């Protein structure tokens, strides 16, 4: 099972129709059996919005993380399961995380007494949304507990964004203090905790799995290929009321539309996916500003009309622009 299949299984267990989630992800039922399935970030935004809309009484990132078993991380989960210690499991997760979750990027900072697992802000929409970051750190905490078979308490948990839910469920989940609006997203463990042994491990199987993971990792394109950054930068300055097009961006990059399409596909994305990401992050930024009203924002983002912007924003967040602005402008 892949991490995407785990998301769908979670939603179905909470009453969300499987067909509805597959439609949001633009997948067929058979796709979930694909062992190396990866879904574009634009579609994952839609799935997060669906979860938060349909599960208002659920702290989605924590409940989702609690529902995952190591094996639902696919190959990466199996690598963790057969590592000798939690520290080795962490090392393998960080090395191969792109295979399981390409939109997360965790790094490790080793200190004399404490190890910090830090989320690196490499993709803007993941940082802006916040919930995937919470899920990533919560999922790792819960996997550690399952691997060693005992409850664990980090020294500290911090998130850089504002809290969307009450803090108390986070402190109960992590078994420690949790602070929001801090300089970084981080999960801190005492070193002796990470030196704890894993209940099950098979060194022979681990060697086989790691060889396979190394081959898969080498075949993946960089998560942030240079062409993606170039397109994102151009779109960020061109959202001035004119509908952005593939042809316009290709011309600015001195290449044909076919070449640009091919290079973005090789990087694992598309022009529409990058455009959606830029529109999403720009919409949140503009709506937070005192002068940012939905009509002006829709025009600035290049939408043909206000209803088109409303439909897109509802897909991203599960709220209308006015509802989101009221809840977040003061943050």
Keywords:
331 residues; alpha+beta; 5-stranded mixed sheet; 18 helices
Outline the structure in words.
There is one protein chain. By secondary structure, the chain is an alpha+beta fold. It is built from 18 helices and 5 strands. It has helices at 3-13, 18-25, 41-54, 60-67, 75-81, 86-100, 124-129, 131-148, 168-174, 191-194, 203-219, 226-238, 246-252, 257-266, 271-288, 294-300, 306-317, 321-328; strands spanning 106-110, 114-119, 156-158, 178-179, 186-190. A 5-stranded mixed beta sheet has the order 1-2-5-3-4. Strand 1 (106-110) and strand 2 form a beta hairpin. Helix 13 packs across helix 14 and helix 16 packs across helix 17 (306-317). The protein is globular and about 60 Å long. The two termini are 38 Å apart. The model has no long low-confidence stretch (mean pLDDT 85).
Number of helices: 18
Q: Terminal Cα separation, in Å? A: 38 Å
Can you give the mean pLDDT? 85
Rg over alpha carbons: 20 Å
Number of strands: 5
Shape: globular
N-to-C SSE series? Answer: HHHHHHEEHHEHEEHHHHHHHHH
Structural class: alpha+beta
Strand order in the largest sheet? 1-2-5-3-4
User: Low-confidence segments, ≥5 residues, pLDDT <50?
Assistant: none
Strand content: 5-15%
- Percent helix, as a range, is 55-70%
Main β-sheet description:
5 strands, mixed
């Amino acid at each position: 099972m892949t991490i995407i299949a785990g998301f769908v299984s979670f939603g179905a267990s909470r009453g969300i129709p499987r067909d509805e989630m597959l439609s949001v992800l633009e997948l067929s039922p058979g796709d979930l059996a694909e062992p190396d399935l990866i879904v574009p970030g634009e579609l994952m935004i839609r799935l997060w919005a669906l979860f938060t809309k349909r599960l208002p009484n659920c702290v989605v990132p924590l409940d989702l993380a609690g529902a995952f078993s190591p094996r639902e991380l696919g190959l990466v989960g199996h690598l963790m399961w057969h590592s000798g210690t939690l520290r080795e499991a962490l090392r393998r997760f960080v090395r191969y995380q792109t295979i399981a979750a390409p939109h997360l990027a965790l790094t490790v900072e080793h200190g004399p007494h404490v190890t910090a697992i830090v989320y690196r802000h490499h993709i803007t929409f993941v940082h802006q949304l916040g919930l995937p970051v919470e899920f990533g750190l919560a999922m790792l905490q819960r996997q550690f507990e399952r691997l060693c078979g005992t409850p664990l308490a980090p020294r500290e948990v911090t998130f850089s964004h504002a809290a969307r839910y009450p803090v108390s469920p986070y402190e109960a989940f992590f078994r420690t203090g949790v602070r929001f609006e801090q300089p970084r997203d981080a999960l801190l463990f005492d070193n002796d905790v990470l030196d704890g042994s894993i209940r099950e491990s098979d060194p022979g199987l681990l060697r086989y799995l790691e060889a396979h993971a190394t081959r898969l990792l080498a075949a993946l394109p960089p998560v942030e290929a240079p062409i993606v950054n170039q397109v994102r930068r151009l779109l960020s300055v061109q959202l001035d009321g004119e509908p952005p097009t593939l042809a316009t961006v290709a011309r600015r990059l001195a290449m044909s539309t076919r070449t640009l399409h091919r290079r973005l596909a090789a990087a694992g994305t598309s022009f529409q996916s990058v455009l959606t990401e830029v529109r999403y992050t720009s919409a949140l930024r503009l709506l937070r500003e005192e002068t940012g009203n939905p009509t002006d924002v829709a025009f600035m983002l290049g939408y043909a009309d206000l209803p088109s912007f409303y439909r897109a924003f509802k897909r991203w967040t599960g709220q209308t622009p006015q509802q989101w602005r009221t809840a977040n402008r003061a943050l």
